[in-house]
From TrEMBL:
This is UDP-glucose 6-dehydrogenase. One of its GO terms (molecular function) is NAD binding. The keyword Nucleus does not apply. Belongs to the UDP-glucose/GDP-mannose dehydrogenase family. It comes from Anisodus tanguticus.
Length: 480
């Protein structure tokens, strides 16, 4: 029986290995992590991450050919194929701080593999890593090999949180990069055979190592660029009276462009986009490509501009102050159908409002009060470091209240902000909400999910990104 081990039981490792176990019943899959709490959760009825469809798969395979364990060295030693899905956070100090990826955990995993391995192994990069990481890992393993042979492959993930299981079941492509040697090609074929259990062969792309590593960074940079492009256009739409939804629809009909990732919003979030672009910027700078680095920096600058513009719009609309006012925040996760809050725009929006002494009442169907408190207590980039390096007991903010009902969050509020596009927010009784709010009552739609005209008829003053402004708002411009 082929044995697979995945180091790292997070958003990538857990779902990916669960689907491999489901689709390949003859393969034994072990997911290992040093976090006892995380592994305990994977072995319980309350999984550590929320992803539609994941729970059913885990329950079906767990204990059969899918195992979650803290016995890292044991499973690494026994495995034929080792996926590495550990954190590659952005460095917060030293050379490349604020841009370069920190490969401390990757290097530690490589040295551990070299210490415990007793047979030849295929090592698969699953984390998003800088170009040439495979070469560095290869050197570590080769110089500590004790006669054991390793083949390094790059197999970046292209999952979208909220649809991860669907993406794993029907991927538009599986990318495998390896060495152009007989041993390297044999390793590529071995991994290809795993995916071939359910992925059509034409959707499995094989490249060299460097192309596979760079393709992941490039894909995320291109997607983030599209979001920043439409968000930049949303500011112009508001200034001219155009409707960004109509503009993006017209642009998306061009077959050379297409409609995806053209929804204007308060900004992009998630664990990958900003981190990967910063990494790309650093690689460009290291290779003397200053103009290319500046180009990609601008994608992040526009994203920051959009979040700042949203906060400024809220404050300027409400008589230039939100001090002492209750603002309801509906949605804290960075997108619907996930509890992930990494780099969510809600953090910057909430911090901006708290900075003006607003009182926040927050509701999200999948994010806990502890997580919200912690996110608003952390410094930038701290979220991607191990749990023991994050705030253990976040400072409880007197200006912050987390509730478990949208109507409770909005009761007595001066304004409400929609920051995550949860489906339940589209069907709220806004007349009931309006009746229970302070007047004038404001709605700031950061996801363009409400019927603006209907809400205005109810009596709300509505700001929806990239849409025609209320007369009230035109007289109170937001200066970002």
């Amino acid at each position: 029986m082929v044995k697979i081990c995945c180091i790292g039981a997070g958003y990538v490792g857990g779902p990916t290995m669960a689907v491999i176990a489901l689709k390949c019943p003859a393969i034994e899959v072990a997911v290992v992590d040093i976090s006892v709490a995380r592994i305990t959760a994977w072995n319980s009825d309350q999984l550590p991450i929320y992803e539609p469809g994941l729970e059913d798969i885990v329950k079906q395979c767990r204990g059969m050919n899918l195992f979650f364990s803290t016995e890292v060295e044991k499973h690494v030693s026994e495995a034929d194929i080792i996926f590495v899905s550990v954190n590659t956070p952005t460095k917060t100090r030293g050379l490349g701080a604020g841009k370069a990826a920190d490969l401390t955990y990757w290097e530690s995993a490589a040295r551990m593999k070299a210490d415990v391995s007793k047979n030849d192994k295929i090592v698969v990069e699953k984390s998003t890593v800088p170009v040439k990481t495979a070469e560095a890992i290869e050197k570590i393993l080769t110089h500590n090999s004790k006669g054991i042979k390793y083949q390094i492959l790059s197999n970046p993930e292209f999952l979208a949180e909220g649809t991860a299981i669907e993406d794993l079941f029907k991927p538009d492509r599986v990318l495998i990069g390896g060495r152009d040697t007989p041993e390297g090609q044999k390793a590529i074929q071995a991994l290809k055979e795993v995916y071939a259990h359910w992925v059509p062969e034409e959707n499995i792309i094989c490249t060299n190592l460097w192309s596979a590593e760079l393709s992941k960074l490039a894909a995320n940079a291109f997607l983030a660029q599209r979001i920043s492009s439409v968000n930049a256009m949303s500011a112009l739409c508001e200034a001219t009276g155009a409707d960004v939804t109509q503009v993006s629809h017209a642009v998306g009909k061009d077959t050379r462009i297409g409609p995806k990732f053209l929804n204007a919003s308060v900004g992009f979030g998630g664990s990958c986009f900003q981190k990967d672009i910063l990494n790309l910027v650093y690689i460009c700078e290291c290779n003397g490509l200053k103009e290319v680095a500046n180009y990609w920096k601008q994608v992040i600058k526009v994203n920051d501009y959009q979040k700042n513009r949203f906060v400024n719009r809220i404050v300027s609309s409400m008589f230039n102050t939100v001090s002492g006012k209750k603002i309801a925040i509906l949605g804290f996760a960075f997108k619907k159908d996930t509890g992930d809050t990494r780099e969510t725009p809600a953090i910057d929006v909430c911090k901006g409002l708290l900075g003006d002494n607003a009182h926040l009442s927050i509701y999200d169907p999948q994010v806990t009060e502890h997580q919200i408190q912690k996110d608003l207590s952390m410094n930038k980039l701290d979220w991607d470091h191990p749990i023991h390096l994050q705030p253990m007991s976040p400072t409880v903010m007197k200006q912050l209240n987390v509730v478990w009902d949208a109507y409770e969050a909005t009761k007595g509020a001066h304004g409400l902000c929609l920051l995550t596009e949860w489906d339940e927010f589209k069907t709220l009784d806004f007349k009931k909400i309006y009746d229970n709010m302070q007047k004038p009552a404001f709605v700031f739609d950061g996801r363009n999910i409400v019927d603006v005209q209907k809400l205005r008829e109810i009596g709300f003053i509505v700001y929806s990104i990239g849409k025609r402004l209320d007369g009230w708002l035109k007289d109170m411009p937001a200066v970002a």
